[in-house]
User: What shape does this take?
Amino acid sequence: MPVTSGPPDWYTRSVKDKQDWTNAPPAVPLDGSEPFRGMDATVADFWAFAMSDLRMNNVRGYLAEFLVRQAVGATHTRVEWDSADVIAPDGSRIEVKASAYVQSWAQRGPSRITFGGLRGRMWTPQDGLSTDLSYNADVYVFAVQTADSHDSYDPLDVSQWAFWVVPVAKLAQLGFTSISLATVERLADRIGFQDLPALLAVERN
Assistant: This one.
């Protein structure tokens, strides 16, 4: 996802001063069975501790990105500082924005659906944050978990998700950095997960 802030300035300044750059190796995908050394626990135990509540804003966002990744047949793992959330096999860059009516905290009523961070500053270790905000994907997918009560909320039921696929050109015409669901609905038709692969293929070409 595009970032509006990067690592601290002191870090950016310090790495800029270095003449030689060390690139981190690609992340090795884990399956959860990997044991910690020095204690009786596995990676799956850590995941259960940190990410069991799929209603949390950040984890729900990861889940929406995963759904889109599955829909386009991508195989990469998530890259925290990448400028787009999903890279399709054809190289197309997809930004995923997720929201829901039901949250993991106390509410007076369902949340109003809005999506922020449509434009962001690019960040690289060498150059830090870019000066200008930009749209950094070819296609934007707006994803909403549609359950309206905790009793009906099933984070593992993909039929509870609704999607709107919007090419970047349409968003650029508006120039928004955030957008309401009502506006998204004027830009694209609502679809379910099963229709997502075909529509993404059309909008990326």
Observations:
- The beta strands are 86-87, 93-100, 114-115, 123-124, 128-129, 139-145, 161-167, 179-180.
- The mean pLDDT is 89.
